[in-house]
Amino acid sequence: MTSTQIFWAHISRLAENGILFDAVVNIALLQEMKSAFGKREGEYSRLVSKSSNKLLNSLWEKKRIPEDGWPEPTLELFLSWLACHDTNNRVDMVSIGAGEREGRVVAPIVRRLHCNMTHGVGRSGSLLEVQPKALGSSMLACLANEFALNAMQLLGLTTCKACLVVPMCTGMSLSLCMTSFRKTRPRAKYVIWTRIDQKSSLKSIFHAGFEPIIVEPVRERDALVTNVEHINRLIEQRGSEILCVLSTTSCFAPRAPDNVEAIAAICRLHDVPHLINNAYGLQSEEIVRKIVAANETGRIDAFVQSLDKNFQIPVGGAIVGTFKQSAILPIAQAYPGRASGIPSRDLVLTLLHQGRRKFVESFDRQRMLFVKMRRKLVSFAEDIGECVYDVEENEISLAMTLSTIPLEKQTLFGSILFSRGISGARVLTSSHDVKNVEGCELINFGSHCSEQHGGYLNVACAVGMTEYEVDEFFVRLASVYAKFTRDMGQWMSEKSIFQPDGYGEEDD
Amino acid sequence: MTSTQIFWAHISRLAENGILFDAVVNIALLQEMKSAFGKREGEYSRLVSKSSNKLLNSLWEKKRIPEDGWPEPTLELFLSWLACHDTNNRVDMVSIGAGEREGRVVAPIVRRLHCNMTHGVGRSGSLLEVQPKALGSSMLACLANEFALNAMQLLGLTTCKACLVVPMCTGMSLSLCMTSFRKTRPRAKYVIWTRIDQKSSLKSIFHAGFEPIIVEPVRERDALVTNVEHINRLIEQRGSEILCVLSTTSCFAPRAPDNVEAIAAICRLHDVPHLINNAYGLQSEEIVRKIVAANETGRIDAFVQSLDKNFQIPVGGAIVGTFKQSAILPIAQAYPGRASGIPSRDLVLTLLHQGRRKFVESFDRQRMLFVKMRRKLVSFAEDIGECVYDVEENEISLAMTLSTIPLEKQTLFGSILFSRGISGARVLTSSHDVKNVEGCELINFGSHCSEQHGGYLNVACAVGMTEYEVDEFFVRLASVYAKFTRDMGQWMSEKSIFQPDGYGEEDD
Amino acid sequence: MTSTQIFWAHISRLAENGILFDAVVNIALLQEMKSAFGKREGEYSRLVSKSSNKLLNSLWEKKRIPEDGWPEPTLELFLSWLACHDTNNRVDMVSIGAGEREGRVVAPIVRRLHCNMTHGVGRSGSLLEVQPKALGSSMLACLANEFALNAMQLLGLTTCKACLVVPMCTGMSLSLCMTSFRKTRPRAKYVIWTRIDQKSSLKSIFHAGFEPIIVEPVRERDALVTNVEHINRLIEQRGSEILCVLSTTSCFAPRAPDNVEAIAAICRLHDVPHLINNAYGLQSEEIVRKIVAANETGRIDAFVQSLDKNFQIPVGGAIVGTFKQSAILPIAQAYPGRASGIPSRDLVLTLLHQGRRKFVESFDRQRMLFVKMRRKLVSFAEDIGECVYDVEENEISLAMTLSTIPLEKQTLFGSILFSRGISGARVLTSSHDVKNVEGCELINFGSHCSEQHGGYLNVACAVGMTEYEVDEFFVRLASVYAKFTRDMGQWMSEKSIFQPDGYGEEDD
Amino acid sequence: MTSTQIFWAHISRLAENGILFDAVVNIALLQEMKSAFGKREGEYSRLVSKSSNKLLNSLWEKKRIPEDGWPEPTLELFLSWLACHDTNNRVDMVSIGAGEREGRVVAPIVRRLHCNMTHGVGRSGSLLEVQPKALGSSMLACLANEFALNAMQLLGLTTCKACLVVPMCTGMSLSLCMTSFRKTRPRAKYVIWTRIDQKSSLKSIFHAGFEPIIVEPVRERDALVTNVEHINRLIEQRGSEILCVLSTTSCFAPRAPDNVEAIAAICRLHDVPHLINNAYGLQSEEIVRKIVAANETGRIDAFVQSLDKNFQIPVGGAIVGTFKQSAILPIAQAYPGRASGIPSRDLVLTLLHQGRRKFVESFDRQRMLFVKMRRKLVSFAEDIGECVYDVEENEISLAMTLSTIPLEKQTLFGSILFSRGISGARVLTSSHDVKNVEGCELINFGSHCSEQHGGYLNVACAVGMTEYEVDEFFVRLASVYAKFTRDMGQWMSEKSIFQPDGYGEEDD
């Protein structure tokens, strides 16, 4: 046998076994061993690298995020492998589509950007259903839910029992949860809403067909905290007319995360559902700890978090988590149709890319950098005669007063920060104006409370922010501030006040 | 100057002018001309190809699907160009993200599959809002809506005035429309629903917080048609308690498209909103014609169609169309947050790939192939002693009786078609069983009507189906049928009846 | 077991078996069957689609171009699968590179464009050697050689016994062959070269360290044909000083393909190697037939063809073919080092994409279109008072006289064709000038012969040209010609003559 | 004007200006400013980010590696932009190909992997020529040569004046240089070759049509160094029969880099060309310093380096450098045809990805890690009773004796290292056997010298090796060594000696 023949024989064997990942078996070595050891060749065969096609198997068996991230070639192989399980990618028998939806994609570039998986996830019955036409897409969807659950547990939500990746924004996902609560609360008309000045949060209530009852926060030293008493009173008054309490954990300082423990206790007492808007709260150990504690002593029906804000994937999805496995089913069934599989795919790819280790590290780094950012902001504020609100429980967002800038110039200051390449920093000014959001009238919208203040700057330290960004932020902030206050004299005669539409609002 | 220097000079000039597509200027030719004609060089300069960077400009100016499709290199350039307008892809100044959502994407493979556009579309206020952070993504979203409108008009909906691409399934989009109607109908509790046995249609009503009032179709010869009288009666009885009538155009034979003209007339008379589920109805000239006519003489508030079923892109989106430009805004504002930009991107890429010509052709081909499919099915049915229901108005789906197969074997017959690589063909059997969908009890679910029948086979000819598929479908159908009836004798003793879960249902 | 559990179990089984392509097994169907037939379930199991992972196996077993092309998802899976066999893509054990070349690629975009296969092909000993570090890349290289051989045989070179894909241009590959002949001809100094006015052909001789003895063609009616007598005389005179005869088959009319049968006979008689430059000759049935015949009765040591010109892949490679299996080895060993694997990859992907059927069709279409082009050119020539040279044996290139255009304007005419988007059409003018190519003095370079003529236009019909291109070519040609002759009056006073550098030459 | 209209107007303006990278102009901000400052708006306009489309311009103007690397979206845009300049990617006028090579690519996946640039580089005249059909590909080729020169200078070869990226391996590129020397040395038959046991180096001489005269190195303490005296003597004897001296800088210890200064001095004195095989020598500051010095006081006609070994790109290319600008032309002209553009593309992409900063850093890191590797190997050698050869001038490769392992087991030891995932580490054993390479008889092939030794292990620290790899290498080496020596007792009775084909050779 020539060396080429040996090689072909080896390849045939590989292919015969359908081995996916069994990469390098040192042919030369095998030959040597044969000649060297004769019959005792098995002696060293244990040195030969173990087949690595166990990688994929272990994924399906354990359904857990692997310890170490996968390299890109493996991710690509994985996607190709999945795609081959969708009917329309069959190579053995041409699939004939005689229905009204057959996963046809006419533009090759679109097909490619979807990795040839075009059927989306779920069926009209439920987001959790498997599509017989699209096993690959369905596997991806299942794996996304399992990975999401695993991720929750890794981040401290150890008692979480089920997760559902939903291809919609946080607000729409909250809406989906409320819809699924409806059946058990046939008389319900209202959702008790602890005020948080995000339009999407408020709109999610209307979208589900309910009306909010607004509970304004109360001031506790620097922080705006939950008015627990008010919630209790409302439930006692309205009883079964209340669909649920919608609390919010992640928010801009000086608003503090809601007191979910107290709310959960009230909800348990009065047998009222409790839904948590935990948009980017996974990043805060304090918030996570509180949700776990609240569930132990009180009631949480579901909690919703954004995929892009916590997992560094593109906008478009959310995760709904529940503490009972059965609780996820009615939520999955409430979605009326098949849905995009992209957020599921992105989550799986991202977690396979990071592996457990780097995933956890990215959260640890956020915590470390937040402490640094707070320290630097406090120091900068002192230097310029401002101060940073003390809202200890808020571990993501910070607020610094802007008393040294005239009220009517504060927004411009924020805009200039943006033009200097700083995105996400927002200036909040105070006003007695009433903003109408979906029919609700909110005074001083943006500040989470009608109470007036002297204006402040919000900044956040989210997962994925780098140390360079934190440092550079302060370099630019200092330079813009210095220039701005120097030039201010010239403008003081002018009186223009401008409020660009939508500026300073928190999007979802 | 050496030839390389001339070349560099030429390139510098190209780059200086920022010319994108001005591809080949024949350098050699220019040189020749100079020497050949001296001052009269202009004489032949008109031969030199006109700069083609007008291509992109004309896109933004006209906002119309180009006549001819773009080749892939151009599509890729276009995507790259767009991506460069998102803040986080800036190359001149490193963007510092100090907010809670900064379009960060940690896995390179995910970033790539999103063409580096990670911010999604819309803001918390509305799906139509532009994100200052993400001009590229926003351009794509705007263009998608313009293209969708252009496509509608090309397909005959010439009076359509506005379109919104929604990154959700048809059912969820119907839900979004209902939510936006709520404000003008504060007392509304019910949606009048002409029965169509898709779970997602029914669920969309519950999701928006309403209850359906079911109007069963009536038999008119072979077809199941709208019970217009019943709808009229219900509106007269309930008045302002009715949110809207939800009619359906595209459906499985023998159900016919709803009589939207009569419904629109009633809705106009009683001032009740009218919402049309036009899931895959764009493919039928008859349906399109009726919607246009219905709007002229009656009332249509919005109509919703699936992106994947009509435009051959992956599952995940829908288009909401309105006949008044202003009517689209409240619907866009009802979505509570930012949303995935993928369906918008896919639609734009697909229409740029096809160009107006091929886009229109693909619909023409469907019409031609449907006629062929009907002719062949009628002929096959005659051969085996069955018949095809005569539902003239249904130009997408066909139904053939299955009287020669025992009731208890019909579903198996359908399954075997699937196993032979035919997807989308469904066998419908009749039953007195009651199916509970979201609390509604529906007799004989799947048949759109409680009336019993002897079982039938549904097939559809949708956009994208090829002539080969139509031909091959009949080859396999004939072969499976022949084998099935031959072997049937052996089973007749057995009594097993099986109804696989969800089999034969219409997904959305 | 819930349906999800069944699904997971199914997936585990798939993964366990390492099944690559075993796409859709209808789970629901399997379940049904179980309940329907009980123990007789096997009855219908034969209906369930056969596993398709045989696809890959058959590739390795047969090493032949598959009958039908593979769809893109399968090609991508195939590439991923191959890449996993290169050491540095291992996922089970991190590879530690302690050598000077470890396939490291620092730019992710570059790695991706190479499908993660970075080691190239061959080793310092031979292009045919397998790299233990890079089994995937090596498999690709082996397959490319096998596919090339298979393609040759499909095109009529049925007695071809071995092929080598070389990642260099045709000229360099000819050089490689000459180098490998050197050992058996230690006294050789010269290569007998039948004149063909391509610089690369001539340069290939010098590159290998030899000197050409030029044999000018002789005129036979319209055609320029091989001066067989001259070759015979030279060999008789110089004997062992001749390394080989280098003949050329594919060329621009009016040069005819060399009379390889006569040359082969002489070479056999005198025991002199014979090398054929068959750059794009695979497209001509006549040339193929002659090479086969020449080998039967005479001597051919190797023949070289361009990859891009015959196989529609990017520039960069060639195929060396031999009629003895053992003859390929010394050529493969002559390459001094490892080489780019890109041409091998591109060839394999292209042939897998086309499949045998479409590959053969593309050559059939060229033949049909060439006949059409010749007919239309003859007709056009008649209309304008020109004529097409009658060179029957040349089935790829055509030449039309340009007597109606003044000599000094002919080149401009060619340039204008180029500026009108016609590439590849060349105007040849005649001249007594001497062109020095690598020290050889050639009179009337470009015309393959020192004999003067009145100028002509060359066009070719190569594989991949579409019917639209042929038709549109004549539309543009006619329009340019009409305009050109109309405007000519104005220029006649002027005397400028220009000859852009390199215009009208045949590249390789 | 509505906000959407303003947006469209802005986009139209962007497109009008053909602005590529002018990413984010804060529209909202511009509006604000207008209202706030009225006519003094210019005051703050300087805050608005400067247009960044200067990026591309500066590339063409400076033709230098940018200071900082470009992000991937920019690289993709750049490739798309280039591709649009190739004729066959025109979108304004369909290109009609009427020649024999038209850049046609039939498989979409192949076209994509070539970024739509399919014409390769160069013309039959020279690798430096611009293809009028393919301006994009030609730009890439030009830029590659400029970047290569810039890179050389950054690495210390400050007096280098011209570079040519050649799409062939180092050996073939050496061959190309020799061919180009031929014209000025018509009587030359021999190349003086300082022995280096790489087959490709030796084969490059034969390929160009010359014969080597071998100069064996001499032992100087541990190192094998150049026998300068011998070279001098040979030149004095043979004079014009010598084409050039081919020296080698990068090599496996204990061979030291050739004394290029002394050789250059001799070459200058006797007016003989001097060609340097600098395969992976760019990584050694010492080698670079010596080449520069040698050129100042002596003669160097060209020096060749591998692209993959120095620049971390896939196998397939080399860079030829010269110290006179005009000297590069004859080399570029010696290539007989058009060539693959892939190595040029890969080099440009890689250097744009890294930027000057990271490119230089990667070389600094190699130097630091080499020192660490040497220190650790010396320490390990001491522990086990071996020693590391002292070859100070070799800053890439190290050699450790293997006296504690019986001769006949040494190769097995090397194989086991490979099977443990260590690639590149080679065991060299000594032998009196004669190896015939292309007719040359070399005793003790692999050891660069016929002198016998007791066996040693070679390891190298090349650019791209990570600190983790260095550390992990020693972990595995120690563990394999311990296990190997422990088990050795059992085998001692056996007598099998095996020498896998090609094992331990240095590839190129």
Report a brief summary of the structure.
The structure is a homotetramer of 508-residue chains. In chain A, 44% of the residues lie in helices and 13% in strands. The first copy, chain A, is of the alpha/beta class and 508 residues long.
Characterize the structure shown:
The structure is a homotetramer of 508-residue chains. Chain A has 508 residues and is α/β, with parallel strands linked by helices. Helix content of chain A is 44%, strand content 13%. In chain A, the strands form four sheets. A seven-stranded mixed β-sheet of chain A has the order 2-10-9-8-7-3-4, with helices on both faces. Chain A has a three-stranded antiparallel β-sheet with strand order 11-16-13. In chain A, α9 (199-207) links the parallel β3 and β4 (211-215). In chain A, α8 (170-182) crosses α14 (328-334), α11 (260-270) runs parallel beside α12 (285-297) and α15 crosses α17 (467-491). Chain A starts with a helix and ends in a 17-residue tail after the last helix. The model of chain A is unreliable at 10-53 and 493-508 (pLDDT under 50). Chains in contact: A-B, A-C, A-D, B-C, B-D, C-D. Chain B binds chain C through residues 3, 26, 28-29, 31-32, 35-37, 43-44, 47-49, 108, 411-412, 415-416, 418-421, 494, 496, 498, 500-501, 503, and chain C through 3, 26, 28-29, 31-32, 35-38, 44, 47-49, 108, 411-412, 415-416, 418-421, 487, 494, 496, 498, 500-501, 503.
